[in-house]
Amino acid sequence: MGWNQRERRLYLNLLSAIILLAGLGGAAWIYQHAGQDEAGVYGYEAGNGTLYPLRPEDSKEYLREMELMGGKANVLVDKFRRWFAGLWQGKIPGRHHRLRHLHHLFWLLLCG
């Protein structure tokens, strides 16, 4: 394909735009169709006109038991584990999907 540098840059820019649009479209679709994960909720607390879910791991008793079993490190690891698992639940994956495609677009433009 005897492409010169200008044609190659145009092709890569077009390819990058297609990837960006596909990623943003996919992220929008995922965001619109994602539900909220309410597993493990034992009740709700009302505040400022909004209902907030109550989970057992948010109670002081749970944190105290975790600290008794494994110390402060156990509490920190549990908080990190719940935070990391929470990245993939509810409407959050759409945001990560979009960021992943923007990251790929950045590297494609940088290398092109």
Structure characterization notes:
The protein is mainly alpha-helical. 68% of the residues lie in helices and 9% in strands. It is built from three helices and two strands. A two-stranded antiparallel ribbon has the order 1-2. Strand 1 and strand 2 form a beta hairpin. Helix 1 runs antiparallel to helix 3. The longest helix is centred in the N-terminal third of the chain and has 29 residues. The radius of gyration is 22 Å and the shape is elongated. The two termini are 17 Å apart. The model has no long low-confidence stretch (mean pLDDT 79).
| Number of continuous helical runs | 3
- The chain-level structural class is mainly alpha
Distance between the termini: 17 Å
Rg, rounded, reads 22 Å
Binned, the helix content reads: 55-70%
Task: Sum up the structure in keywords.
112 residues, mainly alpha, two-stranded antiparallel ribbon, 3 helices
What topology does this entry show?
Blueprint: H1 5-33, E1 43-47, E2 50-54, H2 60-86, H3 92-111
Antiparallel strand pairs: 1-2
